[in-house]
Amino acid sequence: MDTQNIHTGKLFIKQLFKKFPSVRPKDTHKGDYGKIGIIAGSYGMAGAAILCANSCLKSGAGLVYLIVPDQIYNVVAGRSICSVIFPMETKEGRFGKGFFLPALTICNSFTDIVCLGPGIGQSEELKMLINQFILQVQTPLILDADGINLIDAGTLKRRTKPTVITPHVGEFSRLSGKSMDEINENRVQISSDFAKEHNLILVLKGNQTIVTDGTNIYINKSGNPGMATGGSGDCLTGMIGAIWAQMKSAFESACLAVYIHGLAGDISARELTEIGMTAEDIMNSIPKAFKSLRK
Predict the structure, then answer these.
(1) Residue 56: which of 109, 118, 100 has the closest Cα?
(2) Global confidence as pTM
(3) Class of domain 3-19+29-294
(4) Average pLDDT, whole number, for the chain?
(5) How far apart are CA 100 and CA 84, in angstroms?
């Protein structure tokens, strides 16, 4: 592996942040900062949709179109008041087949980037629907959580639009066909090989999260064990979507989002302790993390 393409330091992040529009011209409007579609949530997992959408907005997205099962609409609408929310047909608490065409129309007509997967659950019908959706949606796409658990590796290879996936090691083991031990022993090489083979950006979450496009590699140093809490990954997905919409480069945006996500976690840990912090605290620390980088 060409080690000159491996980035780890704060200097790399500072260079990336210079490309991020942290100071906005006065004559701009919400459409200039990205329209993000988020497909998330199921019965019992409304929080995943809320955390993803609100983290996206706190990372600078101009508009969030939040697509959720109608069974959780009232909960989500009460906690994500700055999102445009579309309730969709529900089957057994998850998206039903009636969600497919309306969601596809919304995403292809109105969004710049789509985040798919936080808390959507799993079923055979949903697996079929999600694999079809991934092939037909015409926007750049971020896949997380059950969005990763439901896809086939062959579907990823057939996609022609830019794609980011954000698995933890267990999800990546299923997707890659390699054991968790094998991955943990050689995280950088296996991640890089998978990203190159499938022509995507891989964000392998965990201690020192890896971001790679198959050629360039970033190993993240921010973050702490307090971030090992439910919903933390949902925040990251929304952050990547917002930053990607503003910076355009998928790899650079994913690197910056991962760092700022970890920095928000570090701020939360300092204020609340690693034990006491939650994903909502990470979400609420995102503006503080951006402010810290601006200094």
Answers:
(1) 118
(2) 0.98
(3) alpha beta
(4) 96
(5) 18
